[in-house]
């Protein structure tokens, strides 16, 4: 049987709640990085996808409350922008394209060096390629 979004959200929230209860029972705190809650580590430990922790308001509020209790920085983006900012997506796509093109250029440069070496050898040995 398929579950609707509200049911899945409630299951995710209960998974976070069980995780937080287990942390309190063990006397451990939330996983953090640079003084902020590590959302990906929390999601992994709770058995959820990271996006579920970010997007589910119940999960988020429980984690924010736990972070405040432990004196960690509030949960949120470092730069203060919304997570789905179209400019961020555009920047990421352009950076990926730049990386791809740089790899392609490097491959073409290595081919050019190889062909230059072959041409040099052909000139030195007197062989010629007729096209």
**What helical percentage do the residues reach?**
55-70%
Q: Identify the strand order in the major beta sheet.
A: 1-2
Low-confidence segments, given as residue ranges, are 77-82
Query: What amount of the residues lies in strands?
Result: under 5%
Radius of gyration: 27 Å
Shape: elongated
> Which structural category do the helix and sheet elements fall into?
mainly alpha
Characterize the biggest β-sheet. Answer: 2 strands, antiparallel
Return the average pLDDT rounded to an integer.
81
Helices and strands, in order, run as HEEHHHH
Count of the separate structural domains? 2
How far apart the termini lie comes to: 68 Å
Structure overview:
With 131 residues, this protein is mainly α. Helices cover 69% and strands 3% of the residues. The chain contains 5 helices and 2 strands; from the N terminus they run αββαααα. It has helices at 5-26, 39-46, 50-55, 57-70, 86-125, and strands at 32-33, 36-37. It has a two-stranded antiparallel ribbon with strand order 1-2. α1 crosses α2 (39-46) and α1 packs parallel to α4. The relative contact order is 0.09. The model is unreliable at 77-82 (pLDDT under 50).
């Amino acid at each position: 049987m398929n579950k609707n979004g509200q049911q899945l959200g409630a299951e995710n929230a209960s998974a976070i709640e069980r995780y937080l209860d287990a942390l309190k029972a063990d006397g451990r705190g939330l996983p953090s990085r640079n003084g902020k809650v590590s959302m990906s580590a929390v999601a992994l430990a709770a058995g959820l996808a990271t996006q579920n922790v970010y997007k589910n308001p119940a999960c988020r509020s429980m984690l924010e409350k736990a972070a405040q209790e432990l004196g960690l920085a509030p949960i949120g983006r470092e730069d203060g922008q919304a997570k789905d900012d179209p400019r961020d997506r555009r920047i990421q796509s352009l950076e990926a394209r730049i990386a791809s093109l740089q790899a392609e250029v490097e491959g073409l440069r290595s081919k050019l060096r190889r062909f230059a070496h072959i041409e040099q050898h052909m000139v030195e040995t007197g062989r010629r390629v007729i096209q």
